């Protein structure tokens, strides 16, 4: 399955931001920063990753879940994709 280049670029940008945030969390932990600050930043990383996943699902939904040559929706597969991000 191939996604539109615009979508891929957007998701990659989101993932790079999350990567930077995660590096910041690791640095904060090594510096012994306050637990509340670390948790807040870790939650931001988690949200960024969720947004990247939802962007992929929203943009390529039909491609991701089509079944066979008829292009029928596999509802169980769709549910599994959404729940994997829940």
From TrEMBL:
A Pfam cross-reference name? Trns_repr_metal
Signal peptide stretch: none
- Protein keywords: Copper
Q: Which domain of life is it from?
A: Bacteria
Cite the Gene3D superfamilies for this sequence.
Metal-sensitive repressor, helix protomer (1.20.58.1000)
Q: What family is this? A: Belongs to the CsoR family.
User: What name does UniProt use for this protein?
Assistant: Metal-sensitive transcriptional regulator
